[in-house]
Amino acid sequence: MGSLPRAAVFAVALLLLASSGEAFFEIFNIFRARPETDYFQNAFEGTHEQTAPTQTEQEEKGAAPGAATGLTRVPPGGPASKAAQDTIVLAADKDGGPVGSWTIVSENSGVSAMHMAVMRHGKAVMFDTSTTGRSLMRLPQDNCRIDPRAKEEGTMDCWAHSVEFDYNTGGLRPLKILTDTWCSSGALDADGNLVQTGGYFDGEKVVRTLGPCDTCDWLEQPNSFAEGRWYATQVVLPDGRFIVFGGRRAFSYEYVPWPGKSNDKAVRLPLLRETTDDAENNLYPFVNLLPSGNLFLFANDRSVIFDHKSSRIVRELPKLDGGSRNYPGSAMSTLLPLDLRNASVGDPEPEVVICGGAPKKSFRKGENNTFLPALRDCARINLGRPDARWEKEDMPVGRVMGDMLILPTGDLLLLSGAAKGCSGWGFGRQPVLTPVLYSPRKAQGPRFRALASSTIARMYHSTSAVLPDATVLVAGGNTNAAYNFSGVDFPTEVRVERFSPPYLSEGAAGNRPVLDAASLPAEGMQYGSPLTFRFSVPAEPVAEADVKTTMYAPPFTTHGCSMNQRLLILRVTAFVEEGRSYRVTVDAPRKPELAPRGYYLLFVVAKGVPSMGAWVKVR
């Protein structure tokens, strides 16, 4: 096409934009509903037919009867493909000390953990989507669900798509989800219930609740939202409410309504429309509650400070160049620990870090089986400064669709994901098997440290979570359109691992502090009030300067997005030695903007080694 015809086409496009607002973008199909098969293309190798695995079902040896757990055996796998063997393993940095270790907690979780949350009754909740068909865990025959997508009306789906996982024993309990939770969002409420929102098809406007008990099951409130919430982000607010941002073709936000209520309309948020593109690189936006009560909101490559009360942007932040950071670009991000030890300066300055991601064209290139290298940069911004700007440094390796967790020490763990491609079924290559420790308090350069590598690829739809014993639970991974265990590059992953960070190595853990949970007040901690408890050490005595107290809000994790994760370092106001025991008094956070109401894991960290965490309610 010559320059004159090209100019004419562009002129027509601009005319359409001026006359109809969205017409210009409709040409590029940005705002029109996209079929789910867009994300199936590589998984189906060019076809869009879903096919269930052909392996024969077998009962898991030693499992309870089908009416109880219904666990079936993992079908046999085949030889590893060339793509599966092309992994990234970094040399562990043993010069920096211990590098941690991996163990397998379970060979079969029954359900591949696309979503995961740790709850206060000693269990982790894992669930995926009904879109992928059968799992490896049966529901009891008298408790099946009607499959609304089946060709024949009234067809029953007797496979569980959610389980309660005992991370200490590997025990499983099937949970029944009625609607499709594919790529949904969630958070824990003030009483420790998991409040879970959105999804796909019949689940896109649903709010679900699961209580922290051994007999609880999902309760669902259909038609709660005005718009579908698929690939959205859910945030806890200081008043205990939840707000949900975005989702596919949802350029808006909504508050989660109370049970039995529903929203008539959503609130428009132009930023979400402005940051979308032909690959929708602004899904699962990063959102953090700030000490001011405002929200940090990041979509694609732009970020703002947003006042949800007045529904206005109070500050536009510098653009983070280099590529896309949100799904399907899928970087890792968190709010850095809030240090409350210097009470005289008021609220701590909040900092956000974003690491990795993908070039903006990664998804479109992936449709043609071209997998671009993931982004290697790690950027952080101090939001307390008037001249806030992104400061970048490089990770040891590029990483996309990884997880970023805050450890009880305040260091970050970067794990899982891939070095090429982006999120989407079949869109990633080169699994990164090596976790990296990021120490935000250190100067640039030595902040990153490679740790012990896993042997299991954790690609698309994998998750992880910090446990009360300060280890990390790692599960899931399914880059296929069904539960496929052979004949694919990356078989569906149902093994569950536990990573023990370096601070739990044999030498370091010899003087691990023991937090006396019974010494904590039954009513928990009140905002702005002192909290007194005891801890002990088994060997070497410690001084006040050796000790810090942290409290951690466990996140809801999916697609590399750990929603509502935050860690606070508390101010110690009294430290009394009583033999090998110590009585410590700390100040609780002053306000819910620092720590929204709910259950937190309280840790004592002595000489860099954390205790077992104890659940404490903040009110």
UniProtKB/TrEMBL annotation:
PANTHER family: OS05G0559000 PROTEIN, SECRETED PROTEIN-RELATED. Gene3D superfamilies: Galactose oxidase/kelch, beta-propeller, Immunoglobulins. Residues 1-23 form the signal peptide. It comes from Zea mays (Maize). Keywords: Signal. Pfam families: Glyoxal_oxid_N (PF07250), GO-like_E_set (PF09118). This is Glyoxal oxidase. SUPFAM superfamilies: E set domains (SSF81296), Galactose oxidase, central domain (SSF50965). Residues 50-81 are annotated as: Disordered. Transmembrane segments: none annotated. InterPro entries: Gal_Oxase/kelch_b-propeller (IPR011043), Gal_Oxidase_central_sf (IPR037293), Glyoxal_oxidase_N (IPR009880), GO-like_E_set (IPR015202), Ig-like_fold (IPR013783), Ig_E-set (IPR014756). Residues 114-503 form the Glyoxal oxidase N-terminal domain. Residues 512-618 form the Galactose oxidase-like Early set domain.
